[in-house]
Design goal:
43% helix, alpha+beta, three-stranded antiparallel sheet, 147 residues, single chain, binds zinc ion
Amino acid sequence: MTRGSVDQIYRDQVILDHCRNPRNQGIVKFPDITGDAVNPFCGDEIHIQIRLGLDDLISEISFQGEGCAINIASGSLLSDYIKGMSILQAKDELVRFTNHMRNTDSGIDDLDESLGELSVISQVKKFPVRIKCALLAWSALDDGLAN
Ligand code: ZN
């Protein structure tokens, strides 16, 4: 890979910060929803626990991730992003973000404003082989919401 490669992503301050200090690491006791995803190809793993509060809003979320920096950062960003959302909203965001990441024809900035901090993950679209790493957390969420 040439310069201006995937290393750029690892140097991104937001990614670095979420990778070194992942958010929402405290285990949720008695979760209402649990989801898991594994990518045997690169050894990434992610496990999500969610506890619902009033009106089925996501009141607590935690995750455990192993593997590459993009996977950990993505899990951390996801957990911050969907906290406080309803299950329905989280499902909508899951579809929206997954489509956004898989649609490599569209620009990397097309959704940035509405994604907030999560938009940094859009950079991964430039490296299609790593998109799976970025989406593994969302697969875990999908797994949890499907049950
Ligand atoms: Zn990975």
